[in-house]
Amino acid sequence: MTRLGIDAMGGDFAPENVILGATDALPCIDSETELVLIGDRERITEVCRHYGVDSGNFVIADAAQKIEMGEHPVNAYMKKRNSSINVGFRYLKEKEIDAFASAGNTGAMLVGSVETIGALPGIIRPCISALVPLFNGQNMLILDVGLNTDAKPEMLCQFAILGTLYAKTIMGIERPRVALLNIGAEPEKGNDTTVKAYEMISRMGEYFDFVGNMEANALFNGGIADVLVTEGFVGNVCLKQSEGMYELIARLGVTHPFFKRFNYEFYGGTPVLGIAAPVVIGHGVSTPVAIKNMILETEKVVKCNLVGKLKNALDEEKNKVE
Amino acid sequence: MTRLGIDAMGGDFAPENVILGATDALPCIDSETELVLIGDRERITEVCRHYGVDSGNFVIADAAQKIEMGEHPVNAYMKKRNSSINVGFRYLKEKEIDAFASAGNTGAMLVGSVETIGALPGIIRPCISALVPLFNGQNMLILDVGLNTDAKPEMLCQFAILGTLYAKTIMGIERPRVALLNIGAEPEKGNDTTVKAYEMISRMGEYFDFVGNMEANALFNGGIADVLVTEGFVGNVCLKQSEGMYELIARLGVTHPFFKRFNYEFYGGTPVLGIAAPVVIGHGVSTPVAIKNMILETEKVVKCNLVGKLKNALDEEKNKVE
Asked: What is the pLDDT of residue A189?
């Protein structure tokens, strides 16, 4: 039995969209998987009734408080001990649930990941990733996309390893190609961080194929890399600019199947990489489709044992060094 | 009489495209403006003859050497004293020409700008900018787009001033709105540099209206800011990602008039801001149209006295402090 904890109060249209998305996910998940909706029990049952959804399809875990989208993450997480996010992380820590997913306050999700769950041994800082749709029909994983601003070269090396393991485990790529996002092709190009990171990552050939620097004009080209490593500030700018492009295309009335792949709904959520239990963060403006896909992504992360594989890889690495 | 120095050997298709572009520019420039083509005199006259262009339309300044596109900027600039780029900067320094423009090796152009011309008094580091086409039909200036990686908050403040003066002088905006590129809306969001820069720029209200942080998903929206300030690494990633988007759109066969405005040909070149004489850098793959527009941009920079206005503004600022 797998139990996926879902923050019923997370996202701009919660709990309505969460309940609708969770209902749509039910026929797609394993019969042995149980969805645990965490939030205000009264609101959840009321919304279920309103939409004619059988609340008996879910386990409901009561959480009296809610962290709002605009709240200061650290303050809110420290104060609202009975919020759905706090309760979710407590359940995850106590193994009442096997994973926790939320489309709520991203900052609070990250605080909970680090404070309550904690990083895997050997990980300096966890990170988050996103999938970039490529022209050749494939996807490329980009990380970090916002958790670590001012990331050091050592962290970029770890992002390369985390990304490689994600690409192997979730994307099914046997030997991932890793590139470093930079502003020139040559090793000496870029800023202090990328110059040092290039040198360090180029010595990590046992884990992946390092294909060198990639410039942002090649971001969507495909055929270059499976994993793109970058510092969190730059990665977040890249990701948001892609979102902006998607919105621009829509506003211009341009329709092309390629751009459908930029729709965050299809990805649903992204796991926090490098922490000791599965946590998936969804998009704040999550629709029922996005919530459904966030739940399916969460199930996949658990079934593939992403966290266990990350842990094993880090242990192996540690043993080699010792 | 205004004399514009043009690097005849600069760009992937030089001197052919430079000569064709310069010929197309002739009917558009002031009758008192003279074009000085700097490069291999023999090649220039030969190409003119080949295309049936009267070489008497131009002043030709001989330069025996050429810095190739792939050469190491500093080494090439220091060694090839008779290269067209070196000769151009020497002429500019000696006031033989009023401005120098090249679509050649960008790095060498920047080295020449800093080493031979030098920064205006009070400027920590010069920078380069680009125009972002906006949904509302206007453009927004983004700077720095690649000259200063690891830029300090103080430099970002200067970019704000340089951008404001460009927006006033060249774009004709009376009181520019300045935004800071960041990964969140609130002042405390971002990395160490943006947090400090936010605080410093917010105290510069006498020069411009600071509208706060802008996230990259709003890059093309319009109606927010006229000038977007960012550190050179991030700005370069933004610019290249926009180029990548433009290429992607073309590859997908999507046509929409909006994307024509992303074509670098229409902008032709960007001035190096913060140095003591007008220098304009064109795009390496410059077509004749791009060269023509680079020349028109260069004439505009001279006629508007951009450098003089920057110098006055910096002097005023200095006097206030003293």
From this structure: 87
Q: Answer whether B244 sits within 8 Å of A150, measured CB to CB.
A: no
Interface mutation vs chain B, best among A75, A192, A217, most B CBs within 10 Å: A217
Facing A216 at nearest CB: one of B217, B244, B258: B244
DSSP B236: H
B25 dihedral zone (left: phi>0; alpha: psi -120 to 50; beta): alpha
Are B38 and B137 within one domain? no
Q: Compare CB distances from A254 to B150, B244, B256 and report the shortest one's residue.
A: B256
Residue A322 maps to a domain: no
Q: Look at residue B322 in the predicted model and tell me its pLDDT.
A: 58
Query: What average pLDDT is seen over chain B?
Result: 93
Give the CATH number, domain containing residue B177. 3.40.718.10
- Whether the CB of B248 is below 8 Å from some CB of chain A: the reply is yes
- Given CB atoms, is B256 within the 8 Å cutoff of chain A? yes
CA distance B175 to chain A (A): 26
Q: Are residues B182 and B246 in the same domain?
A: yes
If asked whether residues B214 and B244 sit together in one domain, one would say yes
Nearest CA in chain B to A192: B150
Chain A residues closer than 8 Å to B236 by CB: 183, 216
Specify the higher pLDDT residue, A291 or A314: A291
What are the Cα distances from residue B127, in Å, to A135, B120, B156, B280, B304? Answer: 33, 12, 10, 12, 19
Query: Residue A268: what pLDDT?
Result: 75
SS3 for B95? coil
Mean pLDDT in each 10-residue stretch from start to end of chain B (322 residues)? 96 93 97 97 97 96 94 94 98 98 93 96 90 93 91 94 92 96 90 96 94 96 96 95 90 87 76 96 85 94 93 79 58
Look at residue B321 in the predicted model and tell me its pLDDT. Answer: 58
How many CB atoms lie under 10 A from the CB of residue A27?
Answer: 6
User: Taking 80 as the threshold, does the pLDDT of residue A317 lie above it?
Assistant: no
Radius of gyration in angstroms for the set of CA atoms belonging to chain B, rounded to a whole number: 20
Mean pLDDT (whole number) for A270-279: 95
List CB contacts (< 8 A) between A216 and chain B: 236-241, 243-244
